[in-house]
Amino acid sequence: MKEKNSLQEIMKVIKKRLFLIISVFAVITGITAGVNYFFLPEIYQAQTQILVNQKNTDEPALSWAESEADLQLIDTYNVIIKSPAILNKVIEELKLNLTSAALSEQITVSNEENSKVVNIFVEDPNAKKAAKLANKVADVFKEEIPTLMSVDNINILSSANLSDDPKPVKPNKSLNIAISAMIGLLLGIGLVFLIEVIDTTIKDENDIEAISKIPIIGVISSFEAEKIQASEKLTRRNKSV
């Protein structure tokens, strides 16, 4: 029974300050939507893949050893791809107004465990430029790796292509707005209950009963409305006389 009364009190508080909850919800959601649609730049992503080849050999044992060596070198390749040795040449050939450190922030290199395929992801506000950068990084890496490590076992598996209708990967506007809406709703409800806790004024007989711990026997109604109506009737009557 107490749980039922508590739930009723909660619903009563929410209903009483529903406008405040809706206002907080609308303001936070609106601000998030405005920032996502008008201020945050859209970021596009392009991907290219390079393959660390196993050299052809007639010796099975030697073939296995070379394959293992290729796999062990992949982590090294991942570092080299984002190194100034590669990125400075990319910047030079594409005539970019960037530092190698800034360009490195746009590039992500990864590979699956025990896989000789290396994925190069490039993000940029321009979809065409992202694809161009990804392909150039792969090309420069393939050209430079024989000099840097005296190996020649890199092939480009797939190039980055610009689709007819590229979609940005950042920001995720729908997700951001949904999260902000949930936060706005929770903040609104939290603010309402905070106000209720801070507000110690007596509003009705229930508050008096809760404070005094004495049951209310009766309530005297306000006669203010009746007084006003009686006064208006008396005024009209006097005028008619």
Automatic annotation (TrEMBL):
Subcellular location, record wording: Cell membrane
Entry-linked InterPro entries: Bact_polysacc_biosynth/exp, GNVR, LPS_length_determ_N
Keyword Iron-sulfur: no
Signal peptide range: none
Membrane topology type: Multi-pass membrane protein
Molecular function terms, GO-annotated: protein tyrosine kinase activity
Keyword Manganese: no
Keyword vocabulary terms for this entry: Cell membrane, Membrane, Transmembrane, Transmembrane helix
Pfam families assigned to the protein according to its UniProt record, in alphabetical order: GNVR, Wzz
Chain ranges passing through the membrane: 20-40, 175-195
Start and end residues of each Polysaccharide chain length determinant N-terminal domain: 6-94
GO cellular component: plasma membrane
Tyrosine-protein kinase G-rich domain boundaries: 148-194
Family label: Belongs to the CpsC/CapA family.
Protein's UniProt name: Capsular biosynthesis protein
Organism field: Ureibacillus yapensis
